[in-house]
Amino acid sequence: MTPRAHHPCPFAAEVEAAHDGRLGAPDLPRLDRHVAGCAACLALRARLDAVRAEARREGNLALDDLARRRARADLLQRAARPGRTPLPTWGRFALGVATALALLVVSASVWRRGARPLARDHALAHVEASPGTRWSRGSSAREERIVLGEGILLVEVPHQHLGHRFVVALPDGEIEVRGTRFEVEVRALHTRRLDVTDGVVALRLEGRAEQLLAAGARWPTAPAAGDLAATHPRVRALPAQAVVPVERARTPQRTRPARDAQTASVVADEPVAPLAAGLRALQRGDLSVAAERFADFERAHPDDERAEDAGYLRVVALRRAGLTAEAGGAAEAYLRRYSHGARRWEVLAGLARVGASNLSCAELTTLAAEFEGDVARREAMRPLRASCGR
Amino acid sequence: MAQLAAGNLSALGALHDRYYGSVLGVVVHAGVERGDADDVTQEVFLKLIALAARFDGRESARAWILGIAWKMALHRRRGGARWLRMLGEVVAEVASAATTDPERLAIVAEEASSFERRVARLPARMQAAFILVEVQGLTGEEAASALGIPVATVWTRLHHARRKMMPGAAGGER
Prior knowledge:
The complex is a heterodimer.
Chain A: H1 12-20, H2 28-36, H3 39-59, H4 65-79, H5 89-112, E1 126-129, E2 134-139, E3 143-157, E4 165-170, E5 173-177, E6 180-187, E7 190-198, E8 200-205, E9 211-214, E10 218-219, H6 225-231, H7 233-237, H8 272-284, H9 287-300, H10 307-320, H11 324-337, H12 344-354, H13 361-369, H14 375-380, H15 382-387
Parallel strand pairs in A: 3-4
Antiparallel strand pairs in A: 1-3, 2-3, 3-6, 4-5, 5-8, 6-7, 7-10, 8-9
Helix pairs in contact in A: 1-3, 8-9, 9-10, 10-11, 11-12
Chain B: H1 2-5, H2 9-29, H3 34-51, H4 61-90, H5 92-100, H6 102-111, H7 114-121, H8 124-135, H9 140-147, H10 151-165
Helix pairs in contact in B: 2-3, 2-4, 3-4, 4-5, 4-9, 8-9, 8-10, 9-10
């Protein structure tokens, strides 16, 4: 039964309006008189009251004062880190003046160049931006550069002559192109997707090896090395010069391995390969292999954002395989490495269900502290506390 | 809020003292996992440092902060869904396996109360109106301002949310 849709009394809407405080004071006595003699409206009012009472009772969390104070201290500590607090008014003014001066200098420099042709021998790339995309373009006789800050660009690049480069600068890396058509997406300062429709592009992201993507390839779900080479022989046949390293000033490559000049294809460095292999093994139920592949990925790419996912999936694979001791070891490794990881509660809860852990009591206490304020979780962790004699 | 905009962190502490419980409640009822809820709550307050200068006082500070909390919680919840989709793109069946894993579902079921499960089943828009008005006690006007929607829309969504939350409603648990 609902107030409007199926309620037998036409006053139902007014009953709900009165419940919300939307009915004017002059109308209230009249409505009260009606409700007093209308069983349907009386029942509706009671049900509305019951919903609100439950919402206020169940919806307000029981908060532990210690947890609240800990959260407050943590918040203020994080807020005090450099870069968090806004600049004072004079600081913002000084920054504004400096920015304006810098723009003035750049504008003057551009103006002095006069009508010098920017990209004399090259047709500019065709760029289509999705609504809301932030991007800019600059070009010189030797290079055309697109800077993508946020959003999606579909780019069609004419063939680049020798000595001329076409580069898309991303917040976390860059793409170099030699005659191709592709779509790239950036969100929250991270490259999310790259679809190559035609030609070959070199993708270089911070902290990752360079990848060559041929027509039909997609990042981050590009096919594994063998598949891509088989599907796109151009990748393997590509001369090394086609992907010559560019200046690293803007995009330092922390873990870039030394490249063999004869190995044109660098797709073998594609970091997702062991992760994909692990997921495929997990899917077909080959759980031990899956766990090994996830461990491979973590070892090979400890700085990759997905290493944490791999660590968690390794725990899942081992647990499903019934390898309790190994799963426990993997869970402990996860918690030590990613003490603030997104899956820390699931991993800790798994350990608690087993009721045994090689984590020290000090480690357990630290890990469990953030969940102490939650009655259900505190209860779930009781076996672990018991193992520490608490 | 003006003090926070000027960089006074003790003002942030005062806001935390006053609104921590409400923000955490909104985040939890918006469907963020308990393990993530504290992180999101912290992020909401950290976000206030950057946004405080935009607060114009036309609505209550509580409504304004809870509106931010709702949006950030929704963002995190969708982020979790994106994680599963990302895995699913690599191996199609993983996403469904992850959401139907009996162990995982058991954990979720253990953690959530009957009330939380019914709130979680509400569509996101109804959820927002229900949480802000019925749970947190904002007025319809405050909720409308916090969510950036007309007040009449709040009442409509609230009406439908209540219908689903009433004892004996279709899909209810009692």
